[in-house]
Amino acid sequence: MNRLLFFLLAFAAVQSLHAQTRLWSALAQGNAAYAEGRYAEAERQYLQILQQQPDNAAAHYNLGLAYMGQRNDEAALQAFADAARLSESGDLASRAWHNIGVIRQSAAVADAAARQNLLQQAADAYKESLRLNPNDDETRYNLALCQHQLRNDEDNSQQQQQQQQQEQPDQQPPPEQQQDPTQQLMNLAQRAEDDTRQKINDARTQQRSLDKNW
Q1: What is the pLDDT of residues 22-42, one digit of tens each?
Q2: Is domain 18-88 in CATH 3.40.640.10, yes or no?
Q3: Is 203 a residue whose pLDDT tops 90?
Q4: Does residue 42 contact residue 64 with C-beta atoms inside 8 Å?
Q5: 150: number of Cβ within 10 Å
Q6: Gap between the Cα atoms of 68 and 61, Å rounded
Q7: Residue 146: CB partners within 8 Å, gap ≥ 6?
Q8: Per residue, what are the HEC states of 50-89?
Q9: 0.85 cut: is pTM over it?
Q10: Are 119 and 150 in contact (CB under 8 A)?
């Protein structure tokens, strides 16, 4: 019985060692493929690791790099988010957040409509990265650049609004047209009444003059 138990334990140890060897081999092959620019092959190797170890933060991070190499931004964002969530290393999580910021900041250049939102997301990612690693000068520089871009966009927007406000008075309708219809009718009636009184006064003045001359 003891020999059987020992055999089972030994067999399990061998199997575990074999599985670890395969994972290390896949990691090495994935890293080599990534270094050579064969990003699809690197992706395949990292996914093979994650099939066996779905909580492997380093594999998620490397997978994100492979997706970035293929310009698959959405998949890369998810991989880096998983790496940051699962990582027990502040350095790895910090690098994952940094890369999320890079992807968002790059996307802002190509998408004018979502530029402000993307820049803000990038800035938030850089801040999270710096929270985990305050000594990362590259992340600090990227954050400062993001904030500068946001301020410039805000200044440009304010200038456009001021210019529109300056041009708006020239396009305003006359004051009478801005009044409600009831007020316009009252104004017209008042003018008509004033004109009538003026005509009556003029006629009376003319009549007095004729009476004197007669």
Answers
A1: 788 889 999 999 999 999 999
A2: no
A3: no
A4: no
A5: 17
A6: 11
A7: 101, 105, 119, 122, 123, 126
A8: HHHCCCCHHHHHHHHHHHHHCCCHHHHHHHHHHHHHHCCC
A9: no
A10: yes
Q: Are 105 and 73 in contact (CB under 8 A)?
A: no
DSSP one-letter code for 173: P
Tell me the domain boundaries of the chain: 18-88, 90-148
Single out the residue of 160, 150, 159 nearest to residue 116, CA to CA.
150
Tokens of 166: 């300056």
Cα(45)–Cα(62) distance, integer angstroms: 10
146-159 confidence digits (pLDDT tens): 999 999 888 776 66
The stretches of the chain forming alpha helices (DSSP H) are 2-35, 39-52, 57-69, 73-86, 90-110, 115-132, 137-167, 175-178, 181-213
- 73-105 b/e with 16+ CB inside 10 Å = b? eebbbebbbbbbebbeeeebbbbbbbbbbbbbb
How big is the chain, counted in residues?
A: 214
